[in-house]
Amino acid sequence: MQPLLFNILFKKDKKTKWFEYINLLKNKSFCLSIYFATLMGTMSSPAQRTALKYNVVQNDNVIGWLKIDKNDSANTSLIHFSSEIKKRVLFLFTIIENQEVLFENGTMTHSYVYRRINNDIKVNKHTTYTGDHYIVKNEKNSTHLMLNNIACNQLSLYFYEPVTVNQIYSDNYERYLKIEKTGNRYYTMKLPDGNKNTYYYSNGTCTKVKVEQSLFTVEFVLIK
C-alpha cells in the first residue's frame, strides 16, 4: 500500500489548485532516464515483468502485505499495485488498496487509485491525459490539472532510485511532492500534512519504505 494512505485514514483527499503545479522541468532528466532505461531494457524482448513483494511491519509485527509489478514493452510500461493492511486504532481497520499507472512513450497517460477502509471507500479516481493536461475524475466530480507529460509518479519510486530528481507526482495529492537525499541511498519525501516517507535503495530497487506519522511508524520491507 502506498505510504500516503495513512495520512487519510480518517479523512478524504484535499484538492489543490492547478497553478501550484507548473514546475516540471527540474524532473525531466530523471523521468527521461526512466523511460530510456525501460526502452533499452525491452528492445531485446517483447515484454519484461518485474514483481516485488513487501511485508508491512509495525513494532516488529507483520500487519499486512504489499505487491507491485511492472510490465514493460517497447513503448509502454504498466505498473500495478495492491495491498492489504490490518491496523488497530482502538478498533480494527482493514485497509484495501489498488493502484495502476500506464506510461506510453515515457508519458503517464492513465492512472487509477482505489482505497477502502472497512466498508468505507476513501478514494476511487482515474487520472487521464488529454494531450496537453490531465483530468482527474472521482465518483462526484472532475478536476483539470494543468500539467503536461508526467513521466514518473510515486509508484515509480519502487523501481528507480531518484538520484537526479527533486519532485515526484502524487496521485493522492494531485500535485508534485518534494523528495531529497537524506543519507546513503535513501531519500525523504515530506508530505503536505507534516508527515514524511523515507525510501531506501539497493541496486536501484526500493528495499524499504519508512512511513513516519505523528502517532506511529510503519515500514514496508522487501521480501521478494
Describe what this molecule looks like in 3D.
There is one protein chain. Helix content is 7%, strand content 53%. By secondary structure, the chain is mainly β. It has one domain (3-222). The protein has a 14-stranded antiparallel sheet. A hairpin with a 2-residue loop joins strand 4 and strand 5. It is globular and about 45 Å long.
Order of helices and strands: HEEEEEEEEEEEEEE
Helicity, as a percent range: under 10%
Number of strands: 14
* Biggest sheet descriptor: 14 strands, antiparallel
Give the overall shape, derived from the CA principal axes: globular
- Whole-angstrom Rg: 17 Å
**Count of DSSP-assigned helices:** 1
Summarize this, please?
The chain has one helix spanning 28-42; strands spanning 48-58, 61-72, 76-89, 91-104, 107-117, 120-129, 134-137, 142-145, 167-170, 175-183, 186-190, 196-202, 205-212, 217-222. It has 224 residues and is mainly beta. It has one domain.
Provide keyphrases for this structure.
mainly beta, 14-stranded antiparallel β-sheet
